[in-house]
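User: Before I run my own analysis I want an independent prediction to cross-check against. Here's the chain; please return only the structure tokens and, at the end, one sentence I can use as a sanity check.
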Amino acid sequence: EAARALSIEVGIRGKVSGPHRGFERLALGPDLRERAILDEIKRSVRHSKVFDLGGLLSLKELGALIERSRGLLCADSVPMHIAAALRTPTVALFGPSSDLIWAPWDNSNATVVGLDLSCRPCGLDGCGGGKKSDCLESLPVETVMRAVRSMLLAS
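Assistant: Structure tokens:
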């Protein structure tokens, strides 16, 4: 839902070159087990050109892309930590993991978005034995959008 809203309002933008021009939409994704999520994102932004780089980049290539990006929207993950090290503006979504322990370190350009729920952080790979975490699925789209808008305006 957030991907669709971002596409409509500002686009899921990954800047590869050029200062604030020539933006293309970009989807970076995890391993092959999560292809369905990437496919869903691509379908939700079908009016836009999307480059799906899921599973195609080396760690070094991912770092180079993040370094040249205007900003990064991601869950608590390796790309988030790379962005923190490079001080790339970041909106980091937290669910089952603890943002008190794993938030982007030493990156004043990072914003953490997460819900204050009694069950989090739980450290589980999804609720009730599933692969979906309610604490991530129920993040208000407007909260994520507000953080992304702020990040893009500042960068």
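Sanity check: The two ends are 24 Å apart (CA to CA).
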